[in-house]
Structure formats: structure tokens, C-alpha cells
Amino acid sequence: MSATHLTEKDARAAAALQNTPPTGNPDRRLSAALWCAGVATFALMYAPQGLLTQIGNDASVSPAQASLLVSAATLGLALSVLPWARFSDRVGRPTAMRYAAATAGLLAVAVPWLPTFDALVAGRFVQGVALGGLPALAMTLLHEVAAPARTAALAGSYVAATSLGGLSGRLLVVPVADHLGWRPALAILGGGLAILMTILIALLPAGRARRSPVPSTGILAIHLRDTRLLALFGIGALLVGGMVAVFNYLPFRLEAAPYHLAPTVVSLIFLAYLAGTAGSRAAAWLVGRFGQRTVLVLACTCMAGGTMLSVAGPLVLILLGVAAITAGLFVGHAVASGMVGAHAKTGRAQATALYNVSYYAGSSLFGSVGGFAWASGQWLSVAVLVLVLTALALLLALLPSTTARRVVATESC
Q: Locations of Basic and acidic residues compositional bias (predicted)?
């Protein structure tokens, strides 16, 4: 496309690609927009996780059934990311993200007031469908708009924002719920996140459709035959499934004997997400120094070691184990998701959408499977499940096809 055909927003994006500082600093604006998307999406998606014991007692459902409030949202997200990617090809990434943010903001306030547990599960599923347009398109927008030299830092910043969102959503609602009840707590959080979604809508650049010469079904078929991409999809699904199982059922362990911790105290375990924030920010540096495969192996090993620590009795060791699990997940996720976006030269939106499908399907599936593990052998069985998942992810990380050129990861993880 010649310069005479560029819109004002395209000109700004082109200037960014040339490392020319245009008016308004679009990289900084994009970073702020993606930060809002990461925090709001993950705070909204995982906020009920800190309240599962209270909701389970109030609704008279089992721990496995209570966990459906998390799994339903992640399942809705997993099923919606491909439609969101296709929709964004028609209207542009930013426009699609605006629709997603507006819908998710409205649902954030409405869903907590649904009267029955079954209605809540259905509402959370719809909420996940709306949220799917944000993580499905954030990385794609980043690669299309940001200067190449900035993609690694911006991607790490976005993943760090997702960890902060996951932390704040889980941590903030519990003390409010202790005083007002879990429904008002979720509604108050939803109101704050609706404001954040409004800011996101204002910060996103103008969007234009980016049509691919290959039909979307053909692009998906190409990606599904790519062994490197399939391995990366599997790594994301297995690692996040293990971490979600940990956070779904650890509160049930800590609120029971011999710990008898109050829900507000138990919610402090989510401070382990700060380890994930640090890990995702450090991922690009680690890959540049040690290479992709080494960092993926390190992430899997860190999760496995943390899981074994969590089986110990002393509370300090349990907390250290959870921090290691969280750091391992976010390092692995930052590297794997960045490699997907960099490796897919055609149909990048579809490739990142497929990664998100596998990632959130893994979260939904293994988060629920963890309930069966808990019912059969409580925490020891949950730990065994997580170790199996991390071992499978490690095998995928060691496959020769998983590793791309180092320069790709240092620019894109």
C-alpha cells in the first residue's frame, strides 16, 4: 500500500514500524490499552475462584460443581476466540475488541445477580464468550501495530497485566464478600472493571479489516498441520490446566483441618500471582539468554517442583510451592504464546486464536477434572494430576519441532 492510501491511523502505525516517534506515542497508547484488556479480562474471568467455598456452601453444591463458575467462563472463551478472530478480519482488530469490551462490561455488572446456581453458570459461560474477543486479538493487534523492536516488551507487559488482573480479581472480592456477601462483591468488582473496559475502548486505535488471501478454513487447516504450533498449543493447555486446578481446590484444603484458615487469609495465596507477573516480564530476557527450549523446560520444571512442595504440611512450603507453580505457568505462557504469534506468518489471528482455544479449553477441562481428583484423594490426587500435566508439557517442549529460531522468541514472547 502506498503512502497516499494510508489513513491517519495507518500512518501512525507505519511511523511506529519505522521507529519514528509520531505524535501521541502510539506504542505507549497501545501498551495502556493492552494493560487495561489484560487486567479487566482476567480479573473478571477468575474473580469467583476466591469465593468457591462460600458459593459452594451457599448454593449447597460440591467443590467440583462450584468450580464450574470458573470453568464455564473459560469454556465460553475457548469456544468464542475463533469466531472473534473471523469477525475481526471483517471489521478490524480494534473494532472487534471494542464490541467485546462493551458486552463484557455490561455482563460484569449483571451476571452476579442471576438468581440460581445454574443461571450463574450459564451467565458465566456467556460472559466468557464476550471476553473471548480480548485475549484472542490482543497479541495479533500487537504484532500488526507495534514497532518490531517493541513487540517483546509490549507482549511481556500484556502478559504481566493478565497476571495482575488474575491477582486483583481473586484478592479483592473476598474481604468485600465477608462483609456484604459474594453477590455484591462480584457486582462491585464488575462495576470497576466496566470502567476499565470503557477506558480500553477509548484507548484502542482505529481499526481496519486485514483480509487474508487464504480462506479462514484453509488457514486453520494449515495451522493444524503445523507440528510446531500444535506442540505450543498443547504446552499452553497443559500448564494452565495444572495451575487452575491448584487455585480451584487449594482453598478447600486450607479452610479445612488442620489449617482452618479464614477465607480472607486464604485469599492471600493469590499474591503468588506476583511471581507470575515477574516471570512474564522476565521471559523475553530469559529466552534471549538461554533460548526457547531451555526456558520452556525451566517453566515446566518450576511448576513440577512447586507442585511437589505444595504436598508438604508446613504452610510456608505450600506458599512457596504455589509461587513456583505460578511463575512457571506465566513464563511458559509468555514464551509459548509469543512463539505462536511470531511463527504464524499467514493467518496470525487464527493462529493466536487456536492457541487461546487450547489454552482456555485446558483451563476449563483440567480445572474441572481437578474436582474429580479432589473427591477421590483430596490434595494428593490434585498434585498428582498437576505433575502428570507438567510432565506432558515437558515432553512437548523437548520435541525438536517446538523450537524456532532464537531471534523470533526474543522479539515476540
A: 1-12
What whole-number distance in Å separates Cα of residue 355 and Cα of residue 376?
Answer: 31
Tens-digit pLDDT profile for residues 185-243: 999 999 999 999 999 999 998 766 555 444 466 778 888 888 889 999 999 999 999 99
| Residue type present at position 378 | Q
- The enclosing domain of 34 has a CATH number of 1.20.1250.20
Look up the domain containing 394 and give its range.
Answer: 22-412
Query: How far apart, in whole angstroms, are the C-alpha atoms of residue 370 and residue 384?
Result: 10
pTM: 0.79
Count how many domains the chain has.
1
Amino acid at 130: A
What is the tens place of the pLDDT at every residue in 340-357?
Answer: 877 776 777 678 778 988
Confidence band for 276, pLDDT divided at 50, 70 and 90: confident
DSSP codes of every residue in 9-64: HHHHHHHHHTT---TT-HHHHHHHHHHHHHHHHHHHHHGGGGGHHHHHHHHT--HH
Identify whether 80 is part of a domain.
Answer: yes
Distance CA 227, CA 353 (A): 16
Rounded Cα distance between 200 and 43, Å, is 15
In one letter, which amino acid is 99?
Answer: Y
* 361-370 pLDDT, tens digit each: 999 999 989 9
| Residue 355 domain flag | yes
25: left (phi over 0), alpha (psi -120 to 50) or beta: left
